[in-house]
């Protein structure tokens, strides 16, 4: 089974949804046969970190929501995160553009470290208040999951993986993704949002059962048609 997950490193429900899916997969008897692939998405492509302005103030101005309401909303999100063992530090969080972080994640994926980098970046942003648009920060975090510092710096100083990130975003647009997290199972079953772990358990089992019942390819040969073909035993 293949699961593709569109998400952004500054999306609070993406981290919650990630953890819920992981919890569901722990109970899934075929988890060793599941491939998980993270896809790039940007909630705010124009995002910019403004030194001296905290997350609440930035979000309040961007969305036109009163400051106290923003704090209340994020407090509620933090409570949801806590139910899956995540600690969100909104007070010190740094609003950032994530495009370069996604480029590093694409490099990490090629090196077999895509899942590790995704987890590290999410934790760094939501719990440790790291600035994910800062090159030195991205290099440091990537090195913590055993990626080469010089290679990561080279990626950041160039345009490498820009097309791969944009490709993910374009595909999301084509398949109708309007928000993240967005989960696609075997390229034909979709689940949107940070669903409860029980929902993911149900989906995993349902997709697995349906895929086992059906052949990989559906034959479109007309009924009772006669044709010519070859096998390893000869041709008819």
* Largest sheet, spatial ordering of strands: 2-1-3-4
Roughly how many Å is the radius of gyration? 21 Å
Structural class: alpha+beta
Largest sheet: 4 strands, mixed
Listing every helix as H and every strand as E from the N terminus to the C terminus, the arrangement reads EHEHHHHHHHEEHEE
Terminus-to-terminus distance: 35 Å
Shape descriptor reads: globular
Number of H- or I-type helical stretches: 9
Strand percentage: 5-15%
Number of strands: 6
Helix content: 40-55%
Task: Please state the average pLDDT score.
Answer: 93
Low-pLDDT stretches: none
Features:
single chain, 236 residues, alpha+beta, four-stranded mixed β-sheet, 9 helices, 6 strands, 48% helix, 10% strand
Quick rundown:
The protein contains nine helices and six strands. By secondary structure, it is an alpha+beta fold.
Report what the structure shows:
The protein is of the alpha+beta class and 236 residues long. Helix content is 48%, strand content 10%. Helix 4 (99-110) runs antiparallel to helix 5. The longest helix has 17 residues, at 197-213. The relative contact order is 0.17.
């Amino acid at each position: 089974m293949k699961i593709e997950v569109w998400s952004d490193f500054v999306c609070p429900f993406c981290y919650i949804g990630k953890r819920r899916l992981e919890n569901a997969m722990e109970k899934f008897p075929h988890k060793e046969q599941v491939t998980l692939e993270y896809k790039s998405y940007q909630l705010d492509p124009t995002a910019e970190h403004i030194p001296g302005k905290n997350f609440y103030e930035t979000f309040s101005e961007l969305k036109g929501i009163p400051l106290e309401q923003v704090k209340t909303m994020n407090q509620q999100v933090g409570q949801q995160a806590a139910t899956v063992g995540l600690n969100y530090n909104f007070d010190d969080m740094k609003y950032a553009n994530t495009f370069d972080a996604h480029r590093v994640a694409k490099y990490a994926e090629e090196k077999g470290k895509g899942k590790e980098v995704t987890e590290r970046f999410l934790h760094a942003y939501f719990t440790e208040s790291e600035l994910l648009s800062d090159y030195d920060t991205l290099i440091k975090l990537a090195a913590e999951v055993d990626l080469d510092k010089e290679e990561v710096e080279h990626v950041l100083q160039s345009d490498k993986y820009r097309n791969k990130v944009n490709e993910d975003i374009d595909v999301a647009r084509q398949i109708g993704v309007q928000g993240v997290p967005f989960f696609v199972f075997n390229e034909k079953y979709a689940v949107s949002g940070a669903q409860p772990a029980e929902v993911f358990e149900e989906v995993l089992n349902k997709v697995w059962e349906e895929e086992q019942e059906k052949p990989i390819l559906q034959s479109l040969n007309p009924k009772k048609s006669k044709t010519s073909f070859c096998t390893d035993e000869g041709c008819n």
